[in-house]
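Milestone M4 deliverable, item 7.
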Amino acid sequence: MCGIIGVMAKTPVNQLLYDGLLVLQHRGQDAAGIATAENGRFHMHKGSGLVSEVFRTRNMRNLAGNWGIGHCRYPTAGSAFNSAEAQPFYVNSPFGLMLAHNGNLTNSEALKREMYLGDLRHMNTNSDSEVLLNVLAHELQVASNGAFRLDEDTIFTAVAGTHRRAKGAYAAVVMIAGYGLLAFRDPSGIRPLILGKNETEKGTEYMVASESVALDVLGFKPVRDIGPGEAVLVDKEGRLATRQCSEAKPFAPCMFEYVYLARPDSIIDGISVYESRVKMGVYLAEKIKREYAHLKIDVVIPIPDSSRPSAMELALHLGVPYREGFVKNRYIGRTFIMPGQAVRRKSVRQKLNAMHQEFVGKNVLLVDDSIVRGTTSSEIISMAREAGATKVFMASAAPPVRHANVYGIDMPSRRELIAAFRNADEVGAEIGADALIYQDLEDLKKAVGDLNPAVPRFECSCFDGIYVTGDVTTEYLDQIEDDRRIASTAASADDESEDEPAAMDGTARV
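Output delivered:
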């Protein structure tokens, strides 16, 4: 889950890209980068941290030009961040390319071998985004047939070649030196990408972004979502071209975007994220009436922020008071995307504080958008009891997360998922709840799908273990588990080493 943006403007674009990344900051807080183009040259600045931390006035001044791309990142592998993997990435052969990518390639290791042995291209990081960039660069070389000249057909042919080789989930924005802005989406449409435009006195400006909220805030009007397997090309003169570049595959946008990842004011593939979360609350209330009517619930309290729409609607349908019981410190990052259990556990209490008057002597129903590792849920239930709650029930607007996600969300290891090998009662006991209610998967699908019947299915692999790209094997999942275990062990060792004293010879430990 990363945030990407690309803009072809009529005036300097650096501020637009910066403001767009601020709007998309919820999609990644690990690193940020912006690249612009001016007079045939690329300018780029990127680094670790939040958007506001990475860019200073001097950096912005150097990002000259009227078109460019931006990226905010979080790691999909759950390991410590390497600043070399901040995006965008650049290659200069056969054409100058800058790429920013949201998603995860499931065949990146195989592609790396192809790059080294067949395409004779070198990767400098472990990032699958750099792999995607090199695949596209190679396909451009093949499509140009050695002419080293670009046109619309050549570029779209290269995207088609990239789709044939790259597997998994990806939405990408690309700058092509001397030509223009390219954007494309994976053939299943798993990761989101939307096109917008802005009419100015100097002509039409175009933007592509991960979420529609970026268009709204920057004054662009949504045109439409970029389709699965589709590519959009805007040249330097502002001419727009689109083409379907892959074979038809089942359209399956990521369900977790609606559950948790996206901002509520976004519309993704014609579906309002906010309305979908409201409907999740309706279906969850019906399940509680049907199966948990014996619970004596005095108050419904959301766990801020993404569960609020579901919690409000659930309380309304149950006829139970809705209250805000937790105050959120908005200067703490999203705990779900923080690497390492210890960091998550510590951050929960820094992030939330309970208002005792809403808990004392009450049977409280806490509502969260989902329960992934259980760390946050366990801590919050403890906080509710400490605040004086008589009983604490927990409801999840999403079904149990039981399977690895390989399409760009940081939950690849089943051993980290609290529900992977437990039923609802066992999970409830593990997190300390007096009762735990999960949303049913079919109800979740209806809550989201009813808002746009044109979307035939959703990518729900973390709930049902069905991987829509058809290339995810047991061996692949086992390898992810092993890689994650090794990375976690190394990270733990690093944490422990920080507590060790300086070396006896007087040299400082670095």
